[in-house]
Write a structure and sequence with these properties.
With about 290 residues, the protein is mainly alpha-helical. The protein has 12 helices and 3 strands, in the order αααααααβββααααα. Helix 1 packs antiparallel against helix 2, helix 6 packs antiparallel against helix 8 and helix 6 crosses helix 10. The longest helix is centred in the N-terminal third of the chain and has 22 residues. The two termini are about 40 Å apart.
């Protein structure tokens, strides 16, 4: 794919968006994104769009995750990356309509909301957060929230979908049900988290409003769970903007610091490709150099 071809595709794509009624600013950003995408294909020695494979889309996604802002030095946020990937999907719709060529034929993993190491909680801070819980029913439930989202590294909705029969206390494993974009998987549960799960199920779960067989009872809105975590952080003297997903980022970073292979961390997190996991290598490097 040469520069002339890239310019022609960009021009035709711009006309396509104009005819669809997109705003001028949107057309400008979308066209620029496609120029970047096509230039990246050029670097990968792709001579025509017929040669584009899912691996090339994943490589572009990894490239976007590795980009840093010239102004702030931080990586692109998840929403920005998602927008750029959406433009590739829109470009694929254009090429399908005009040339019967489907460019975007896969799904990619977007790492949302991470701002380098700023959202990472240290292992010592995790211990301090746990120390803010007590043996009341609320304290037991707080430890379960930490266990699901830090100990098991779950996404927000994955934690909500955990049911009583998904926890195998003998095998020390948690079954994660499949969703629209992710496959099912088994996640190991360490002994302390397993004990917290047992205590909660035996002594605390019935004290909160039940949601059928759902393991996590009571209020489960994203704002409530985040507020619970923020309260624990404040008690622990942690002055960071921490959310549930920060716990997932943190355990991934800690596992990498403990020399767990990247492939195993990807499997633990349920990433579709290892490229989405590679962002944590950059975070570990920054933490190591004390940036």
């Amino acid at each position: 794919m040469n520069t002339k071809t890239i310019e022609q595709y960009s021009k035709n794509f711009k006309t396509y968006l104009f005819r669809l009624g997109y705003a001028e600013s949107t057309i400008k950003h979308s066209t620029n994104d496609i120029k970047t995408f096509l230039s990246h294909l050029q670097v990968q020695n792709i001579k025509s769009l017929q040669e584009v494979l899912p691996e090339h889309i994943h490589a572009y996604n990894a490239y976007l995750h590795g980009l840093k802002s010239r102004l702030t030095g931080t990586g692109l946020n998840g929403k920005t990356i998602q927008s750029k990937i959406n433009n590739v999907r829109l470009f694929s719709q254009f090429t399908e309509a005009t040339e019967k060529i489907k460019v975007y034929s896969t799904k990619v993993e977007i790492v949302p909301g991470i701002k380098q190491h700023k959202e990472i909680i240290s292992q010592e801070q995790i211990k301090n957060i746990y120390n803010q819980t007590d043996d009341s029913v609320k304290g037991m439930r707080d430890r379960v929230i930490l266990g699901l989202y830090y100990g098991c590294g779950l996404r927000y909705k994955e934690g909500l979908r955990v049911e009583l029969n998904h926890i195998d206390y003998k095998k020390e494993m948690l079954f994660i049900t499949p969703s629209k974009n992710y496959h099912s998987r088994y996640v190991p549960i360490n002994q302390q988290v397993l004990k917290d799960f047992k205590d909660y199920e035996s002594y605390a779960r019935s004290s909160f409003k039940q949601r059928g067989n759902s393991f996590l009872s009571g209020s489960v809105s994203n704002s409530f769970l985040n507020k619970t975590l923020q309260n624990l952080c404040e008690k622990a003297g942690i002055n960071k903007q921490i959310c549930l997903h920060s716990l997932r980022h943190s355990v991934a970073t800690h596992l990498l610091q403990q020399a767990m292979p990247l492939e195993q961390i990807a499997k633990f997190l349920g990433h579709n490709t290892i490229r989405a996991t590679q962002i944590y290598t950059h975070i570990v490097e920054e933490l190591h150099h004390g940036k």
